[in-house]
Amino acid sequence: MYLRALNDSLTKVMKNILVIGATGQIGSELTMELRRRYGDSHVVAGYISGAEPKGVLKDSGPSAIADVTDRQSMKTVIKQYNIDTVYNLAALLSVVAERKPEMAWKVGIDGLWNVLEMAREHQCAVFTPSSIGSFGESTPHVKTPQDTIQRPRTMYGITKVTTELLSDYYYMKYGVDTRAVRFPGIISNVTLPGGGTTDYAVEIYYAAVKGQKFICPLKPGTYMDMMYMPDALNAAISLMEADPARLVHRNAFNIASMSFAPEEIYAMIKKYVPGFEMDYEVDSLKQSIADSWPDCLDDTCARMEWDWKPQYDLESMTVDMLEKLKIKFAK
Ligand code: AKB
Predict the structure, then answer these.
(1) Annotated catalytic residue: which of 47, 156, 171, 200?
(2) What pTM did the predictor assign?
(3) Distances (CA, A) of 290 to 161, 187, 200, 234, 262
(4) pLDDT digits 0-9 by tens, 213-228
(5) CA angle 254, 234, 273 (to 5 degrees)
(6) Strands 224-228 and 258-260
(7) What is the pLDDT of residue 331?
(8) Is the domain covering 186-226+258-297+312-330 a CATH 1.10.8 domain?
(9) For a substitution probing ligand 1, which of 94, 191, 255 has the most ligand atoms within 8 Å of its CB?
(10) Closest ligand 1 atom to Cα of 132
């Protein structure tokens, strides 16, 4: 028991991690959380030119160019820092991907191919998230099972299903340790998301704290899975730390913590900000994407195979979001 614990902590200490897309919504917080757990010098913030890390992200540890479309840039950083684990967060979100399908494929799939090839060559484990966007109209929308129909009609969804299949392929054919979750909409207070269908659930908090009326781009009754950032970070890290012998699935696990429609998040915020107002102005692209996604996923497999358990629900997330954003805007 003691030896196992010692071994686990040594393994943690010895990990060298590259986060690709470290300045994005998830990457900026994931990099800091990984540094907290594994040590600052063991986590490299990978970025592309024009999206350099700033502030604490820049100052707390190493950073390097890691562009998924340029294999050489990844090879250089993997060798320089002796990387053994890659969190690959390079992707265009659903709305932008619909506007720039070719770019979405280039970054999401050609880029993933480069990451997986580098991982094969340098024996790295790889986490490349999928999404609730990997499902489509013909998927069961309520309690969506782990293994079910995945026939999305958006470019984002197509790249996410391909991500899952290609990641599994590299595991089965070459033994690359690929693992992933299907992220829902992620709600956070550090870095804003850009170009997703679920972004409204972040923007609504910013409007409430700034005392502005919120214009919701989705109709009442549009349910989607959402998650607070601390749970999302914990999901990614716990899965990468999970005992491989217990994993029946790999790419990618359904995870869930809350599902709500716009009128429900509005009512919850209004409970704490009574003067808050919201109106609807439906964006047809966002609405059609949201309508094609599940209302709520069944995450039983994640709970059974690696003990997934979220901490936050809509109310506890709302209290924390409002508190953190008030501090942020008081500065
Ligand atoms: C998006 O809305 O595109 C993302 C997602 C759910 O994958 N947040």
Answers:
(1) 156
(2) 0.94
(3) 17, 16, 11, 25, 12
(4) 999 999 999 999 999 9
(5) 90
(6) antiparallel
(7) 74
(8) no
(9) 94
(10) 6
Residue 87 annotated to the active site: no
∠ Cα 140 283 145 (to 5°)? 15
Counting atoms of ligand 1 from 1, which one is nearest the CA of 156? Answer: 3
Peptide bond into 45 cis (omega under 30): no
Ordered by start, the domain boundaries in the chain are: 2-183+229-254, 186-226+258-297+312-330
pLDDT of residue 194: 86
CA of 79 to the centre of ligand 1 (A): 32
d(CA 174, CA 172): 6
Contact 322, 269 (CB under 8 A): yes
Say if residues 171 and 177 touch (Cβ distance below 8 Å). Answer: yes
Any idea which architecture 2-183+229-254 has in CATH?
Answer: 3-Layer(aba) Sandwich (3.40)
| Residue among 96, 130, 131, 199 to mutate when testing ligand 1 (max atoms within 8 A of CB) | 131
C-alpha of residue 76 to centroid of ligand 1, in Å: 31
Nearest CA to ligand 1 atom 4: 196
Per-residue confidence (pLDDT) for residue 14, from 0 to 100: 67
The pLDDT score that the predictor gives to residue 164 is 98
Q: How far separated are the first and last CA of the chain, in Å rounded?
A: 48
Q: How far is the CA of 164 from the centre of ligand 1 (A)?
A: 16
Whole-angstrom distance, CA of residue 24 vs CA of residue 51 = 9
pLDDT in tens, 61-119: 999 999 999 999 999 999 999 999 999 999 999 999 999 999 999 999 999 999 999 99
Picking from 223, 147, 210, the residue whose alpha carbon sits closest to that of residue 182 is 147
Ligand 1 pocket by C-beta < 6 Å: which residues?
Answer: 93-94, 131-133, 156, 183-185, 196-198
User: What CA–CA distance (Å, rounded) separates 255 from 227?
Assistant: 9
Structure tokens at 34: 């990984």
Which segments of the chain have a pLDDT < 50? 1-8, 10-12
Place of tokens 């919850």: 268
